[in-house]
Design a protein that fits this description.
alpha+beta; seven-stranded mixed β-sheet; two-stranded parallel ribbon; about 55% helix; rod-shaped
């Protein structure tokens, strides 16, 4: 099975094939302690990265808790912008040339999409392009204990992911550390997709994190959120929680835009136009736009459902942390069974066992305070994630309502068209019935005239009369034939139909 393996860092193959490298200035955040602002530093050259790793990066065994995070800036992101600018750009680009281009023109895509000539503008390599050299990323992956599973997560660019695993990671010096590995990925169906990997050391509360494909506005937003982290600075799910918040903002912006567009398409169905008055190219364009909008909304709903499942997994993990990592030890007593003075007492200059007991008791008390604080933070995370899940449920229902509304509006439009066709057909049928009755009246006369005009009959008219004296025979035969024709029509079509219908109605009345 292809599950996360122990001591599995990023391989050389993944460094070469999975990632692209465009060195540029990169922000590094360091957050330590409660109620402290994150320390931000800009690094660019390989020498700066090496110096930072050697002198400033806290080690897992140093006893330091907090967060060290690298914001791997997105390719082409150099200017300072705002979150609003990023979202507006996301909205414009996703509508102009986003996910729709992955569909052929028969269902609303770009004309070159079938041949693979039109690349997606969503930046499929946005999260894969790193702002440092390959050697620097190799150093970062080793010193920050990045797990090799992040390469597979980054490659699965069209599927949102949250995964967690308990893995033992080893250092170059041979030390082994128990870690929690978290990987997050947002879909690249729209712009500004992100990827995240976090390595958390539960023994010290230290976390290493790298955010891939980070726009400048997202960097500012993350710094703002970390500034108010407080006692959650050492919580394992701090950065994945911020990732979920950012993805929520992106989804809401996309959803609001799509809802406006699909409602406009629904309203267009209320104003039907005569097909003869519209050019065939315009009709094809309108139909393609409607299909494309329906496909976009359906795809968005599926993406929301998938990401909701990842949030549920994240919520369950908060409960796992409460039951395992932050399990309280209040019922456990401290015993010092050996009468001999432990070595630590000699180092501290303590000669009384009770003093050592007091120190151990203080350590346990501090540990309990830390655990209770972590449990409280976990409860906040759990409640906030559940609130986001409830919001996603509402947005998913909103998508479903628009999709069903468009289908219903289309059915109503087709139904009204079918009713008009049926009424027009009924009017034509009445006209044709009138014509048929008139034809039945005149047809016998025409038939008789044709018979009497044959040479089988010799009427021998007198020389001084124009009309033969036997003309009454033609009149009589025509009237009899006409009455017989109408009578047969009435019997076969009208009277027999009524005679079949009357017993059914009488049976229904007696049955009641």
């Amino acid at each position: 099975m292809d599950w996360p393996k122990e001591n599995d860092g990023i391989s050389e193959t993944d460094l070469l094939n999975c990632f692209k490298y465009e060195p540029k200035r990169t922000r590094v955040l360091r957050l330590e302690g409660v109620n402290k602002e994150p320390f931000v530093k800009l690094l660019e050259t390989d020498e700066q990265w090496i110096e930072w790793v050697d002198k400033e990066l806290p080690k897992p065994n140093s006893g330091t808790s907090g967060l060290v995070m690298i914001l791997a800036r997105r390719a082409g992101q150099q200017r300072r912008s705002t979150m609003h600018d990023e979202l507006n750009g996301l909205e414009r680009e996703s509508l102009k040339s986003g996910r729709v281009q992955t569909f052929p023109p028969q269902v609303g895509g770009d004309l070159n999409a079938e041949k693979g000539l039109q690349p997606s503008s969503c930046g499929r390599r946005g999260a894969r392009t790193l702002p440092f050299s390959q050697g620097t990323f190799r150093l970062i992956s080793q010193k920050l204990y990045l797990h090799g599973s992040i390469a597979r997560v980054v490659n699965r660019s069209d599927i949102p992911i949250f995964s967690r695993a308990e893995i033992n990671m080893s250092s170059e010096e041979g030390s082994t550390y128990a870690t929690y590995i978290y990987n997050c990925r947002s879909t690249n169906a729209w712009n500004n997709d992100l990827a995240l990997t976090v390595t958390h050391f539960p023994n010290t509360g230290l976390s290493y994190a790298v955010l891939f494909g980070c726009p400048v506005a997202i960097e500012e937003e993350i710094i703002r959120r970390l500034s108010s982290a407080g006692e959650a600075a050492s919580y394992p799910l701090l950065v994945p929680g911020i990732f979920a918040e950012l993805e929520r903002i992106r989804h809401i912006e996309i959803l609001e835009t799509y809802v406006d567009d699909i409602e406009q398409k629904i309203l267009e169905l209320d104003y039907p136009h005569s097909i003869e008055q519209i050019d065939s190219t315009e009709i094809e364009k309108r139909n393609r736009d409607k299909r494309s909008q329906w496909l976009d909304m359906t795809y968005l709903r599926n993406s929301l459902l998938t990401w909701r499942e990842q949030l549920v997994k994240m919520t369950r993990h908060t409960e796992e942390l409460k039951e395992t990592l932050f399990e309280t030890n209040r019922d456990k007593d401290i015993h010092v069974e050996d009468d001999n003075i432990p070595p630590v007492q000699l180092e501290l200059g303590l000669s009384d066992k009770s003093e050592f007991y007091d120190i151990k008791k203080d350590d346990v008390r501090q540990d309990e305070i830390h655990r209770s604080c972590a449990i409280k933070v976990g409860a906040k995370f759990h409640d906030r994630l559940q609130t986001i899940i409830d919001e996603y449920d509402d947005k998913i229902r909103e998508c479903t309502m628009r999709i069903d509304g468009m289908a219903m509006a289309t059915q109503w439009s087709h139904g009204e068209t079918n009713v008009e066709i049926a009424l027009a057909t009924g009017r034509d049928s009445k006209h044709m019935r009138t014509i048929s009755i008139v034809s039945m009246v005149f047809l016998p006369g025409t038939f008789m005239a044709s018979i009497f005009s044959m040479q089988f009959f010799n009427w021998l008219p007198s020389q001084d009369t124009v009309v033969s004296q036997y003309f009454w025979i033609y009149i009589l035969a025509t009237v009899i034939a006409t009455m017989s024709t109408l009578g047969i029509y009435y019997y076969c079509v009208v009277w027999r139909h009524r005679s079949r219908k009357m017993p059914t109605e009488e049976d229904g009345l007696w049955g009641r």
